[in-house]
User: What shape does this take?
Amino acid sequence: MGFILLINLTQRGNNEETSSTSLQEQSVIGEGRVILTMTIGQQVTIERVGQSWRMAPERLAVQATEQMMRSWHELSAMPIDIVIDRQQNEGVFVSMVVAGQQNIQLFTLYLVEQQLVVLNHQTGVYFALPSVMYNQLVPSGLLVE
Assistant: This one.
């Protein structure tokens, strides 16, 4: 009987650890994943070419493109419990091919109430970031209005 109680207490402790880790920052594209190709707003495509990036059409300097892609690779944020009405809020659609993933990864970026909200369409998880991150992920001049 004591052994059963010990197992139950151990399982309860594991569940509490799992729920608390879900409230920590997470990598938005996945820990250690490498972006091979990314399309932003159906206007610009960025491809990995060796150790650098190629953009078509070319709208940013090479250094700005590399900084943008570094920001995407390092992007981590807190998951939030929110649902955005896609009819009311216009977002920027981002699709990417990630090494080791069979499916294209889909994201939408929303600027909502002084914060950037990123929706991962595969997981249905929304992530909250400071609104200034938007300019690092989608630099000015990248998209044509």
